Amino acid sequence: MKIIQRLLISFIVLGLVVYFYASQNRSVPVKPAIEQKRPNLAAIFYGNCNCQQVVDHFGNVSRSAFDASGNRIGTQVGHVGGPSGIVVEMTYLVPDADNPLGQAFDGDGNPMPLRTGPASPGSSPTGTARQLGQELQKLNANPSAGGAVRIDRDRGTPRDATPPPPPGIRVGTTAVRLG
Predict the structure, then answer these.
(1) I need a labelling partner for 111 at 20 to 30 A (CA). Which of 19, 59, 91, 170 fits?
(2) pLDDT the model gives residue 21
(3) pLDDT of residue 135
(4) 77 Cβ partners below 8 Å, 6+ apart?
(5) Is 154 part of a structural domain of the chain?
(6) Burial category of 133 from C-beta neighbours within 10 Å (exposed 0-12, middle 13-18, buried 19 and up)
(7) Mean pLDDT for the chain?
(8) How far is 65 from 59, CA to CA, in rounded Å?
(9) Number of domains comprising the chain
(10) Residue 178: helix, strand or coil by DSSP?
(11) Which domain holds residue 94?
């Protein structure tokens, strides 16, 4: 009797799964969530560009484009090379009405996700870390409330002290004998 009940239940469950799976309309194409218009990066950063390009001593290059009133439009970051003096690795366009967070593009001009950080200062995606951070902020703001003391990060060495030598390197010093 138990075998018949189990078979009956399994057929009912299988029938429900097939019914709900087959009843979905799979012929409708899925639209992308956000369709981003691609700006003409060549028109912004090349040609008659009002740009400022800076190269540091490591070979990193940043080029910022400005509009006629002197407001920054965007910045390209990369390294030295290429026909224009920069091999672009990333482009960032400042926020505008259509893109309140701005836009980021890779070296080929393809849109890439913006990594804007946490939603608010001190927030974290995990609940426990967020709660811990909020508790620490409360305790640091008012140490007498929870009996906590502000964290002292001084390790006891003066700020102008030289760092220790790397492992495996001995530094010769003159011996000082007392007495």
Answers:
(1) 59
(2) 72
(3) 67
(4) 60, 61, 62, 88, 89, 90, 91, 92
(5) no
(6) middle
(7) 75
(8) 20
(9) 1
(10) coil
(11) 41-112
Q: Does a structural domain hold residue 88?
A: yes
Residue 23 is assigned to a structural domain of this protein? no
Q: Annotate 111-132 with DSSP letters as a single string.
A: EE------SSTT--SSHHHHHH
CB-CB contact of 63 with 52 (8 Å): yes
Q: Which residues, at least 6 apart from 160, have a Cβ–Cβ distance to it below 8 Å?
A: none
Beta bridge pairs of residue 112: 104
SS3 content of the chain, % helix, strand, coil (to 5): 25, 20, 55
Burial zone of 84 (CB within 10 Å; 0-12 exposed, 13-18 middle, 19+ buried): middle
pLDDT score of 119 more than 70: no
Per-residue pLDDT tens over the stretch 29-56: 666 555 556 788 888 888 788 888 888 8
Structure tokens at 132: 């811990």
In angstroms, rounded to a whole number, what is the distance separating the alpha carbons of residues 35 and 73?
21
